[in-house]
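Q: Sequence in, structure out?
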Amino acid sequence: MKIAWSLVAVLAVAVQAGPQPPEIDYVDEQDDAKAALMLEKLLKKPLTAKDAARIADTIAKKRLYATGLKDTQTLKFECPDGVSREFTYYLPKKYAPNKAVPVVVWLHGAISQPPPGGGHHESKTFGAAVEELGPIMVGPSTHSKVEWGEPANRALLRHAVEYVKRNFRVDDDRVYLAGDSDGGRGTYAILETLAGTFACAIPVIGSPGGVTRFNNLRNLSLLAINGEKDGLFTIAEVRKDVEGMKASGIDITFVEMAGKGHDPSLFIQKGDAVRKFILAHTRDPFPKTVHWCVDKTEGETALKFPANTFRWIRIEEAGEAKSQHAFEDASKGLLRADLPRIEAVRDGNKIVVRTSGVTKYTVLLAPGMVDFAKPVVIETNGKPSFEGTVVADARTVLEEARQFRDGKLVFQARVTVEVDALPRDK
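A: Exactly. Output:
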């Protein structure tokens, strides 16, 4: 992917605290062709499981952070649709490089506005509601009616978060998503494919119109704030959507503000509730249960990272398999039975997977999930798929780390299962 950097971004690289370890340089490399050459160089000599564990530790803990960066900058990114869009960050007043801080990503409303969009203004305005929590505010900007859930804006949001993580000490488990109006609607849409990034989400004066993968929203908690007299997202429709989400197994807290209309400042007015909600939610990088589905009507991005992956589970291929699980809640609430779906539960070294419309999937493994000294057992739709020990692998560590670019999601092994294949040992 080609990336257009503004001059200030180039200057930011010039004040890097020091040379990064080569493994981190590889993870950070934006050019896929260059990264491929770097990877082969890193893997040129044989590497042991001990080496792989060392690399994982380096990626998770040994990053050097830039010094002298501005407290706020607006930078540009060339999105996959060829359009250059902006994002802005604001550091907290008392930012200290030796302390990991949370991040709040704010999705602005009025996406029909002309370039450059409203991220710069809105992220500063609504950041006031959470200022006492000390987060870095990140405000991507869209315009010209390009929805937040479009692949172009998903890439913009990912890049903005990755930029902040590269340059400032961020707590990966305290990254939050919020937005108003079109950005509130966009908050729901972003979670369809990027839920793994966030600890929780707060859509304001929006609704989940256009969302198809409600199953993916089951992985985190939401606080929805709407006005009773909203003339754009009418409260009757929002109530219906909220009830549908609750019936779908989504953990959503709904705040309906009496007498209020389509007012973005409801986020500020409910500041106490917002701050309390954020403080109550820290991401679990390796949850015991994960849910995920894909929507192939999206096109080629549907089965590519990150749309096909949540934390430690990935749908590799979708289609009709002989082995299928009949999910009892397949059409419950707003869930869609026609979408390829996977559910995985880990208990010690045993992982139980249930699938529908999935022919191949991958389980990503880290020492924080399973004991690598003992056999790992994977069961698919009630039948054994894999049993054996797993070994930390340097290629897996590096490739997955470059995809996730998340210091808490560093995996050391992976097992790929063909749903209809005979059980195997590694």
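The radius of gyration is 21 Å.
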